[in-house]
Design goal:
mainly alpha
Length: about 30
């Protein structure tokens, strides 16, 4: 249970980072 929760939290963090990076890239391209 604990390991699965850790993996879920890690993947969520990575997904958030990727999401922010893609938004920044799109924003930079727009301007």
């Amino acid at each position: 249970m604990g390991i699965i929760t850790q993996i879920n939290q890690m993947s969520r963090r990575v997904h958030k980072k990727k999401f922010i990076i893609t938004i920044k890239q799109h924003w930079c391209r727009g301007t």
